[in-house]
Amino acid sequence: MKVFITGMGAMTSLGNSVDEMFQGLLDNRTGVRAYPEWAQHKGLFSYLGAPAPDFDNMKIPRAARRSMSRMSELATMATIQALQQADLPIGEGLNSQRILLCMGSTTGSPVILELYFRKLFEKGGPEGQLSTSFFKVMNHSVPANVAAALGFHGPLLSPSSACSTSAQAMILGWELIQSGFYDIVIAGGADELHYITAAIFDIVQAASRGYNDRPELSPRPFDRARDGLVVSEGASVVVLESEASMKKRGARATVEFCGGAYVCDGTHMSQSNASTMTEVMKLALTRANRNAADVNYVNAHATGTQQGDSQEVAAIREVLGGNVPVSSLKGHFGHSLAACGALEVIASVKMMENNVLIPTRNLVEVDPECAGVAHVQQKREARIRTVLSNNFAFGGMNTSLLLSSGK
Question: Mind listing the pLDDT tens digit for each residue in 203-213?
Fold first, then answer.
């Protein structure tokens, strides 16, 4: 059974729509900026982040907004965009036991978590806490709030695996459509920007510290001068649909979602492992019924960390050889955590539609440890038929998936 993407929505550091985001990529813009005020937090040495532009949250019903954090608002806006492109109704017409809502975040809202515990310590107890706080920090806050805003009454799942969250949501959606349980899966992820998130990576020396005064130069995936990732925020949502459902509705497909795989290597909580990356890519190819020779672009996870980038290149080289074009979009977006998998799928779809390869921003001199693959360093025209997209996360989480234009 074939599965297609029929709708896409995105709220990103490059713009609050799919078209705005893609124009930012074409223009080689960055969403990264400096937060010098973060220097007040003792022990934090990375002051870079990539926020999404302001948006009109009044489009979300007031009753629904009361229980929403910023990440839930971002996710709701992206979901509405995806449903509109897919020509699916918003409201009761969406309710069906054949439609699954599957999305998540890394944690609940870090902004609200900080406010909650600050007040808890100041008051010495729960005095003065808002009754809606828990609805903003529970692990399934994003999909639950999206469902409430849309009036969705149906199946809901909330995967949470940090930077591989939305990739897992899409692969899981594909599996469940293939299994015959659902006709349509609305899949994605969201996270919001907060200094605590930057601190998590900074503590393990994975956040960029050397470009606090030059934010436009970081992150630098695969580059010799890379020094870590830059946290970002956003939401990304895709509508996955069976071929039969799509034809019945008269919907238009963008590309085929060919399938994917997820594998936990269980060896280290923070360090990437090329052997497991190799395994998950090979498994994804098998499950998608594709060969290595079919792939003509790799959208790499590469965040700008020393080990992660070099390990991914070693795995790509092992599975696909050295001639397939490879680029990472983290130099443009920053790392949007739970949103990055679906966001990079959406960007890849736009590249396929426009016959263009987007380069890795800030890749000036390829690190010798990242050599041996065909790095894309300049925007260029290309006919892209099959994309392999990777996402990896703390906890040894590894995902890989494939898209096909059918051309």
Answer: 999 999 999 99
pLDDT tens-place string over residues 28-81 = 999 999 999 999 999 999 999 999 999 999 989 999 999 999 999 999 999 999
- List C-alpha distances in Å: 323 to 21, 288, 375, 381: 28, 21, 9, 16
**What is the b/e burial string over 26-38, where b = at least 16 CB atoms within 10 angstroms of the residue's CB?**
eeeebbbebbeeb
How crowded is the C-beta side of 156, counted as CA atoms within 13 Å? 18
Domain count of the fold of the chain: 1
Q: Domain limits at 334?
A: 3-404
Q: Which of 169, 404, 164 is nearest to 308 (CA)?
A: 164
SS3 172: helix
Q: How many CB atoms lie under 10 A from the CB of residue 274?
A: 17
Q: Can you spell out the DSSP letters for 322-358?
A: S-SEEE-SHHHH-B-GGGHHHHHHHHHHHHHHHTEE-
For the whole model, what pTM was predicted?
0.97
Positive or negative CA dihedral for 137, 264, 179, 352? positive
DSSP state for residue 266 in the 8-state scheme: -
Task: State residue 407's pLDDT score.
Answer: 59
SS3 391: strand
| Eight-state DSSP code of residue 373 | S
For tokens 């074009």, what's the residue? Answer: 325
**How is residue 173 written in tokens?**
């959606």
Residue carrying structure tokens 């808890």: 120
Tell which residue, 393, 390, 41, has the closest CA to residue 198: 41
Residue 12 in tokens: 């990103």
Element holding 234 (H helix, E strand): strand 234-242
* Residue 83 CB-half CA count within 13 A: 21
Amino acid found at 388: L
Tokens 């899966």 belong to which residue? 185
Contact residues for 399 (Cβ-Cβ < 8 A; gap 6+) = 164, 167, 168, 171, 260, 261, 262, 280, 341, 390, 391, 392
Would you please indicate which residues are annotated as catalytic (active-site) residues?
Answer: 163, 301, 335
Encoded tokens for 5: 């993407």
* CA dihedral sign of residues 73, 228, 396, 347: positive
Q: Measured between alpha carbons, how far is 39 from 45 in angstroms, rounded to an integer?
A: 7
CATH of the domain at 108: 3.40.47.10
